[in-house]
């Protein structure tokens, strides 16, 4: 488990999503849904798109490219053309800092 | 800016224009309503160059609100941007050319092509594709393949115009002093105007010019063509225009507005006394806003065409575009315009009144259609097409000494506006560039 | 899109026959330009409505799907409006009616139900209107109608008519008839 710093809570407005670049694990999208913070992979599972460029509608993130949707708390793919769920990360808030807890996948390490 | 459309190479002008159109002599020939080669020149030298009406701002309230329409035969999307501006794009995917927006209006995040899933945001940027990895592997440059944006978009009092031609004059210069007259309908009350919801479209087998010319300055037809409708709606004949003490035909750059100063002649034919009363009620405030002269125009016996194909009738409040669909076919798009500040029941009466009079079921329009179709169809005859048609009324009626802006002619029973319309048409077809279009305006640019 | 408001009971065979006869007669009166007699079949509180059809995406519907009561229409008429239209047909100066337009109105797919209001029936049908003018003009309009008929002392009358055509662009220049 790796603790990845995302951003300051005070800099993430309500119903805002931010993209945090991360070369090691892939970019991470961090969301503030009515005070509750979530983190998911930022790359859409359908085609190349940064979900942080999309709109939040209720608890869904709408991909800006083909308008497929993912449920932010669970990462579930919910709207055509998205079929593969999004990776989600547990978050930890320490004072004002938001961290994602990224489980380092053994397979991915093996692949190098 | 790489997504700006390519402009057309200019083709040679037709060599027979002088034979089909001589406005100094007051004649045209039916050929201009039926010839395929003339029509092709019109698409290039008129519709791909002039400012064309594409929308009313009230149709595009929020970010992502769009309508689709055509500029000439080119399909376009008109969409409200995040910054409040309006962009106009070709409604064709830059990949294989498929239409990217199939609906006539709505609110959207962008446009996704049904063919290969190319996706564009409302600013026209290509934001992705289905199987995007394939494009990335080919080092495809997304920034060059957005929706093709028209050269210029501008508005006047809620009316949105666009042009494909970066060399065209500004909208202000193009409309010139006609804006002073447009205000009589489009800016007579605080808050301006809005369109009633919806758009009624119909198909005429006529040339676009015969319809546009009818609105540019042909009130002459009304007393005869529309006798039946006037009797049905009013129980009597159409107002005898020759009895009006004061009336005018005004034109500029081929646009034309003909009008009397009887305040309510046009609205009266809707047969709703409440609408007449509304006009009389607002008239004093219009006089304060626009002056006495134009307060007499707000629903008077009048009509207007902004060159080439945008027309309206103050009073009936029908607004329309004669969309060209070949030399002998148009699609007519119509809307109803109302003052934003008007009470709801007044807006509703205009919605129905325009339908009862000027729509495919309208008792007035019914008798126009057949006339326009047969003005076009007779020119199918090779011999008939070559015969002169008379357009010479009111040759010596130009008013040198007037406070009014524009090229002002005495009387609205006058073919001065029709001649100016066909003259501008001739000038554009003859010109390879805008600088070759002669300036034939001889009136004032501004009101005195 | 119009949908039936409740599960309604079908009318009896006798009433079905009567309703069919009413609609067939109505069509024939129009074909024979017997407009005054046609107006006699219309209730004084008629709402005769043919909305404009708008080509919208499913996720952007109007109040009634692809039409809206506040939007532009072909007909949105009271009895006075229908009378005015008939008055134009009757003028000797109705140039586009002379020579006459020759009409055939067909009515099909008839269904009739007992409506919730007393003495009224909900009647659904499809129609085809074929018009010819001049030597070679032919215009065909087809669509679906949702009628409310009411039984009065002087027989059945048309109280409401909703006319829906499939076309977002009318393929002809006018509708110089009733549908």
UniProtKB/TrEMBL annotation, chain C:
The keyword Transferase is assigned to this record: no
TM spans (from-to): none
Listed EC numbers: 1.14.12.3
Record's keyword terms, sorted: Aromatic hydrocarbons catabolism, Dioxygenase, Oxidoreductase
Source organism superkingdom: Bacteria
GO BP terms: 3-phenylpropionate catabolic process
Molecular function, one GO term: benzene 1,2-dioxygenase activity
Pathway: Aromatic compound metabolism
Protein family (similarity comment): Belongs to the bacterial ring-hydroxylating dioxygenase beta subunit family.
PANTHER family: 3-PHENYLPROPIONATE_CINNAMIC ACID DIOXYGENASE SUBUNIT BETA, BLR3401 PROTEIN
Protein name: Benzene 1,2-dioxygenase subunit beta
Organism (species): Nitrincola nitratireducens
Lineage: Bacteria, Pseudomonadati, Pseudomonadota, Gammaproteobacteria, Oceanospirillales
């Amino acid at each position: 488990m790796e603790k990845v710093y995302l951003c300051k809570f005070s800099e993430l407005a309500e119903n805002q999503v931010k993209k945090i670049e991360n070369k090691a694990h892939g970019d991470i999208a961090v969301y503030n849904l009515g005070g509750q913070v979530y983190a998911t992979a930022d790359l859409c599972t359908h085609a190349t798109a940064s979900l942080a460029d999309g709109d939040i509608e209720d608890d869904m993130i709408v991909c800006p490219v083909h308008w497929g949707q993912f449920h932010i708390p669970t990462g579930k793919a919910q709207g055509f053309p998205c079929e593969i769920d999004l990776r989600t990360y547990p978050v930890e808030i320490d004072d004002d800092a938001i961290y994602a807890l990224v489980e380092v996948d053994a397979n991915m390490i093996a692949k190098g | 800016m790489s997504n700006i459309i390519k402009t057309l190479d200019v083709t040679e002008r037709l060599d027979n224009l002088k034979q089909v159109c001589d406005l100094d002599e007051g004649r045209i020939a039916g050929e201009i309503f039926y010839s395929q080669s003339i029509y092709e020149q019109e698409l290039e030298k008129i519709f791909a160059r002039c400012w064309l009406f594409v929308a009313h701002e009230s149709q595009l309230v929020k970010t992502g609100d769009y309508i689709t329409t055509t500029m000439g035969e080119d399909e376009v999307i008109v969409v409200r941007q995040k910054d409040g501006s309006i962009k106009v794009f070709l409604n064709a995917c830059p990949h294989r050319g498929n239409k990217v927006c199939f609906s006539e209006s709505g609110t959207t995040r962008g446009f996704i092509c049904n063919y290969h899933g190319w996706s564009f945001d409302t600013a026209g940027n290509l934001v992705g594709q289905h199987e995007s990895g394939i494009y990335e592997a080919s080092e495809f440059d997304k920034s060059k393949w957005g929706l093709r944006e028209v050269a210029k978009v501008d508005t006047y009092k809620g009316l949105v115009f666009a042009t494909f031609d970066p060399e065209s004059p500004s909208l202000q210069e193009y409309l010139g002093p006609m804006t002073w007259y447009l205000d009589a309908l489009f800016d007579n009350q605080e808050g301006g105007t809005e369109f009633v919801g919806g758009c009624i479209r119909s198909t005429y087998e006529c040339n676009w010019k015969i319809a546009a010319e009818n609105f540019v300055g042909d009130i002459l037809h009304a007393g005869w063509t529309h006798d039946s409708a006037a009797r049905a709606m009013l129980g009597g004949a159409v107002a005898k225009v020759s009895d009006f003490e004061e009336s005018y035909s005004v034109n500029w750059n081929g646009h034309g507005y003909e009008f009397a100063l009887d305040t309510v002649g046009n609205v009266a034919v809707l047969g709703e006394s409440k609408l007449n009363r509304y006009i009389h009620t607002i008239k004093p405030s219009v006089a304060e806003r626009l002056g006495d002269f134009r307060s007499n125009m707000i629903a008077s016996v009048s009509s207007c065409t902004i060159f080439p194909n945008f027309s309206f009738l103050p009073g009936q409040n029908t607004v329309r575009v004669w969309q060209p669909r070949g030399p002998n076919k148009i699609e007519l798009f119509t809307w109803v315009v109302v003052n934003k500040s008007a009470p709801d029941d007044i807006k509703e009466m205009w919605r129905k009144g325009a339908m009862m009079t000027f729509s495919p079921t309208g008792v007035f329009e019914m008798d126009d259609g057949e006339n326009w179709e047969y003005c076009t169809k007779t020119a199918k005859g090779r011999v008939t097409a070559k015969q002169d048609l008379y357009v010479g009324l009111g040759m010596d009626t130009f008013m040198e000494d007037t406070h009014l802006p524009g090229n002002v002619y005495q009387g609205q029973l006058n073919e001065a506006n029709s001649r100016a319309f066909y003259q501008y048409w001739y000038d554009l077809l003859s010109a390879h560039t805008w600088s070759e279009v002669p300036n034939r305006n001889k009136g004032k640019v501004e009101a005195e | 899109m119009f949908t039936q408001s409740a599960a309604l009971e079908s009318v009896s065979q006798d009433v079905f026959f009567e309703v069919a006869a009413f609609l067939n007669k109505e069509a024939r009166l129009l074909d024979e330009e017997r407009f005054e007699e046609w107006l006699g079949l219309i209730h004084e509180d008629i709402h005769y409505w043919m909305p404009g059809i708008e080509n919208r995406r499913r996720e952007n519907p109007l109040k009634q799907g692809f039409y809206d009561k506040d939007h532009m229409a072909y007909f949105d008429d009271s009895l006075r409006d229908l009378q005015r239209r008939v008055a134009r047909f009757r003028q000797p100066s109705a140039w586009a009616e002379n020579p006459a337009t020759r009409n055939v109105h067909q009515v099909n797919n008839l269904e009739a139900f007992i409506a919730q209001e007393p003495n009224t029936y909900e009647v659904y049908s499809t129609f085809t209107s074929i018009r010819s003018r001049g030597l070679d003009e032919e215009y065909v309009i087809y669509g679906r109608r949702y009628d409310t008929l009411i039984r009065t002392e002087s027989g059945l009358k048309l109280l409401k008519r909703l006319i829906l055509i499939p076309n977002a662009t009318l393929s002809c220049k006018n509708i110089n008839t009733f549908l």
